[in-house]
Write a structure and sequence with these properties.
The chain is α+β, with helices and mostly antiparallel strands and about 325 residues long. The chain has nine helices and twelve strands. The protein folds into two domains: about 130 residues, Gcn5-related N-acetyltransferase (GNAT) (Aminopeptidase), CATH 3.40.630.30; about 140 residues, Gcn5-related N-acetyltransferase (GNAT) (Aminopeptidase, 3-Layer(aba) Sandwich), CATH 3.40.630. It has a twelve-stranded mixed β-sheet, sandwiched between helices.
Length: about 325
């Protein structure tokens, strides 16, 4: 769960509201307006506003903790297919008002989310990401719910203002793609799955997800061809003046021949064409190849975050059910 402050592990301070625990009720997040949700997250996590009509109800998944007058905690999540066949990923984000920590609010929110995740699929992995600067208290909170540390992600950025753009590499062909070619769609999906096969907690690129991205005007795909064959692609989002690179990959047989660098230059040209001042991306700290590529192109680390996960499988759920049954029998 991405938290600017931990969900539950903070000492109670003088002046905290007496009896607050008894007054808290759990409601689904889709009972909140976007204004309520954005205001809370902006205050506690520094999240930007959604840009939608603030009087509309939130349409996603999650839970909120309410006092008699205010929202005091939020836990949001979304489910998406994993690169591992048959597995679903559940990504978390949330926070609890500091005045209501150590009063069970974070525990109740997490319990609700985990219960929903367990019902979502036979195999589901719940993933929470914590900024390094305040990960320890939140990590202790997650460990109480069986989360284990997965990896570390490094966030990179590059200034694009005033850089000298490199022209197209003549050995390769480049094409901006907005969809409409079923054979290319299939080639993009297959390339993604081959590149990321075996990597834990990475999102699968399904036909439906690709179609949704290609239909989104903020999302862009640049394709890399060699002798008419698709050998790589970059996907990125234009957020105001920032180009946020989501994926940049090249078929293994083209590693070390300059194809990756040519694709980065292609993204730089596309970003500059759209008026972007910066380029940003995220890489796992263990992925030395992509980190070396980013640093070679002037990207620098701006922050890092630690990822934690909790796996639920049929075997885990069965053993938990047996343990619960035995505990109830002993009572």
């Amino acid at each position: 769960m991405v938290t600017g402050s931990p969900m539950g592990d903070v000492e109670t301070r003088p002046g905290d509201p007496e009896g607050a625990f008894d007054e808290i009720c759990m409601v689904r997040a889709n009972t909140l307006t976007l204004r309520e949700l954005d205001t809370f997250l902006a205050h506690h996590l520094g999240k930007l506003e959604s840009g939608h009509n603030p009087d509309e109800l939130y349409s996603g998944l999650g839970y909120a903790a309410r006092s008699a007058t205010d929202v005091v905690g939020i836990a949001l999540y979304y489910l998406i297919p994993s690169i591992v066949p048959g597995e679903e990923l559940c990504f978390l984000m949330g926070a609890v008002d500091p005045l209501y920590r150590r009063r069970g609010v974070g525990t109740r929110l997490m319990t609700q989310v985990l219960a929903a995740a367990r019902q979502a699929a036979t195999k589901v992995v719940v993933v929470a990401s914590l900024p390094d600067r305040d990960a320890e208290p939140a990590a202790a909170f997650l460990s109480r719910f069986g989360f284990a540390e997965l990896d570390c992600e490094v966030h990179y950025k590059r200034n694009l203002v005033g850089i000298d753009l490199v022209s197209e590499e003549p050995r390769f062909e480049f094409r901006e793609y907005r969809g409409g070619d079923s054979s290319l769609d299939r080639a993009i999906v297959d390339l993604h799955r081959r590149a990321y096969r075996g990597h834990p907690c990475l999102v699968d690129l399904t036909d439906q997800l690709l179609a949704g991205r290609l239909a989104n005007p903020s999302c862009h795909y640049e394709l890399l061809f060699h002798k008419g064959q698709l050998v790589g692609y970059a996907s990125f989002w234009i957020n105001e003046s920032d180009c946020d690179v989501d994926s940049l990959l090249v078929a293994r047989r083209y590693w070390g021949c300059g194809a990756s660098d040519a694709l980065v230059h292609c993204v730089e040209r596309a970003a500059a064409k759209r008026g972007c001042a910066t380029l940003s991306t995220v890489a796992r700290s263990s992925n030395r190849a992509i980190i070396s590529l980013m640093q070679r192109h002037g990207c620098y680390a701006v922050k890092s975050s630690r990822r934690f996960c909790r796996r639920f499988t049929a075997d885990v759920l069965e053993s938990e059910a047996v343990a619960d049954f035995r505990h109830r029998r002993s009572d």
